[in-house]
Automatic annotation (TrEMBL):
<dbReference type="InterPro" id="IPR003010">
    <property type="entry name" value="C-N_Hydrolase"/>
</dbReference>
<feature type="domain" description="CN hydrolase">
    <location>
        <begin position="228"/>
        <end position="484"/>
    </location>
</feature>
<dbReference type="InterPro" id="IPR000182">
    <property type="entry name" value="GNAT_dom"/>
</dbReference>
<dbReference type="Pfam" id="PF00583">
    <property type="entry name" value="Acetyltransf_1"/>
</dbReference>
<dbReference type="InterPro" id="IPR036526">
    <property type="entry name" value="C-N_Hydrolase_sf"/>
</dbReference>
<dbReference type="InterPro" id="IPR001110">
    <property type="entry name" value="UPF0012_CS"/>
</dbReference>
<dbReference type="Pfam" id="PF00795">
    <property type="entry name" value="CN_hydrolase"/>
</dbReference>
<comment type="similarity">
    <text>Belongs to the carbon-nitrogen hydrolase superfamily. NIT1/NIT2 family.</text>
</comment>
<feature type="domain" description="N-acetyltransferase">
    <location>
        <begin position="14"/>
        <end position="212"/>
    </location>
</feature>
<protein>
    <submittedName>
        <fullName>GNAT family N-acetyltransferase</fullName>
    </submittedName>
</protein>
<dbReference type="InterPro" id="IPR016181">
    <property type="entry name" value="Acyl_CoA_acyltransferase"/>
</dbReference>
Length: 513
């Protein structure tokens, strides 16, 4: 009589799943095995994939080991030149150009461990991609495929002749033949697609699979413009007698921004220190402690104004006590849907340490809004180029910088650095500062500012890279329009392309969260 068989001893489970952060090390190791001699993904690139489009990052796990994977992003393919390169379509491998409203799923890599080829792993990954395209109602899947056997024939035939031979089944290519078997059709052949793909002699076949279940949606369309209107408040610091007086001034400017149809109203750094003018406390550290007691009123005021006036508000910044004895300089984003985000000031000036004992924040954040992704970098933080680059790599298109400076030299440091960040990162930057004086308030007695909106310096943008600027040292607002679609086009085809032309092979920024 046979004893009962323990079937679990024979089980080796295969599953197709979404890649997670814990898999990054294994994915890099797998790529080195699959594509020796080619540069593998970096940890930063894979983390960016998961931040931008986690659904498009898929792997096959067999008996607890990752043996295959594929990576994708969504694009409007009509926006790219037919002769695009792999770097163009992947934004140097970071896929920060991923467009959730696009029409096409673009596959940027498929790999299968050599020891497991013949087990239909590639087919499973391709089917997973097709399922994703159907689920997201995408028009097609496009891939730039390698032709790794072409190097054997390059002396005897052109890439076009080689591809025709493979299509007619007279030659076999492990990638192109596989793609044809999976229902992909040839669109064209791209030269210089992947510089380190020497086996393909840098050529790639542009292939497409059409989703026959695709249903057009009228709300999806090609954007010719993506205007965002910004109202910058150059706020006058003057004696007041109550929080209600402060609230009335703030509401007035929010109303001005709303009447102009602004998407954002931007207030300056620590402009809530105006409340200290009636707190009757001469010792700066104690005055700051008293100021933090107004945090809830401040948050409630701006939350209500953002919703009531239908405008996203960068609420300047405010001193907040979050732990016993620890006070932070925090900038809040009050969205017009009633939700709130916050960014801590990361670099604290010697003045803030000396007079107020402010504690440093430690995280660069990027926020989603109904006008794209934005970042807030408070005053001194804009003078550290690494922060703006990190925010840009995380998808920010606008960096808002509330600032407070007491003299022209300090103001110019903020201005020059904000303009430099706009050029370096091909983004818009916005600076909003305080003017006026608070004679009875220690360490906040004088102010200097000329608030402004800056653009990258190129033909499609405003002359001198200045969208608009206030007159120096007077209370006023400026209202300016920036266009995120122009920004996207310039990143692709501008006179210079700082983001595309970076050299991560010789330098990079390492961000420690």
């Amino acid at each position: 009589m046979l004893s009962k068989i323990d079937l679990s001893k024979f089980e080796k489970k295969m599953m197709i799943r979404q890649i997670g952060y814990k898999d990054i090390k294994d994915i890099i190791a797998l790529q080195k095995i699959c594509f020796p001699g080619m540069d593998p993904w970096t940890k930063d690139q894979l983390e960016s994939h998961l931040e931008e489009f986690p659904e498009g990052q898929i792997c096959v796990e067999y008996d607890g080991e990752i043996i295959g994977s594929c990576s994708s992003l969504i694009v409007n393919f009509d926006e790219y030149d037919d002769r695009h390169t792999w770097d163009d379509i992947t934004d140097e491998g970071y896929i920060t150009n991923h467009n959730p409203d696009g029409y096409n799923l673009y596959g940027i890599e498929v790999m299968v461990h050599p020891e497991y080829r013949g087990m239909k792993i590639g087919n499973r990954l391709y089917e997973a991609r097709k399922d994703l395209a159907q689920r997201l109602n995408l028009k097609s899947i496009i891939i730039g495929g390698r032709i790794p056997f072409y190097h054997k024939y390059e002396k005897d035939m052109s890439p076009r002749e080689y591809v025709e031979q493979v299509i007619s089944h007279k030659l076999y290519d492990p990638v192109l033949s596989f793609q044809l078997m999976n229902g992909f059709t040839l669109m064209r052949i791209n030269p210089n697609y992947l510089p380190d793909d020497l086996a393909s002699n840098k050529y790639a076949t542009l292939m497409e699979w059409n989703n026959i279940d695709y249903r057009a949606k009228t709300k999806r369309h090609y954007k010719t413009a993506f205007p965002v209107r910004i109202c910058v408040v150059q706020y006058m610091m003057k004696q007041i007698n109550s929080f209600d007086e402060f609230a009335k001034q703030v509401e007035y400017y929010t109303d001005v921004a709303s009447d102009a149809g602004s998407d954002f109203a931007v207030f300056p750094e620590i402009f809530t220190t105006q409340l200290m003018s009636f707190l009757d406390e001469k010792i700066p550290s104690k005055a700051i402690q008293k100021l933090t007691e107004y945090t809830e009123q401040y948050i409630q005021l701006f939350t209500e104004l953002a919703v009531r006036y239908n405008v996203n508000i960068i609420g300047g910044s405010h001193f907040v006590e979050e732990e016993e004895g620890k006070i932070y300089n925090i900038a809040y984003l009050f969205r017009r849907d009633g939700t709130i985000e916050k960014q801590y000031k990361i670099h604290i000036t010697p003045n803030e340490r000396k007079w107020w004992g402010i504690t440093r924040g430690d995280k660069v954040r990027v926020f989603d809004t109904d006008c794209g992704r934005i970042a807030i970098q408070i005053c001194y933080d804009i003078e550290f180029p690494e922060l703006a680059r990190i925010a840009t790599d995380q998808g920010a298109k606008i960096i808002f910088t509330p600032f407070c400076t007491e003299d022209r030299q300090g103001y110019l440091r903020v201005r020059y650095c904000a303009q430099a960040r706009a050029v370096e990162n091909q983004i818009y930057t916005v600076i909003a500062g305080t003017v006026g004086n608070l004679p009875q308030t220690e360490n906040m007695d004088i102010q200097y500012a000329q608030s402004a909106i800056f653009a990258p310096s190129d033909f499609e943008f405003e002359r001198d890279g200045i969208v608009g600027e206030c007159n120096p040292n007077i209370e006023m607002v400026i209202i300016g329009d920036v266009d995120l679609e122009i920004l996207r086009r310039q990143r692709q085809n501008g006179t210079v392309r700082q983001l595309k032309d970076r050299r991560p092979d010789i330098y990079q920024i390492s961000y420690k969260e």
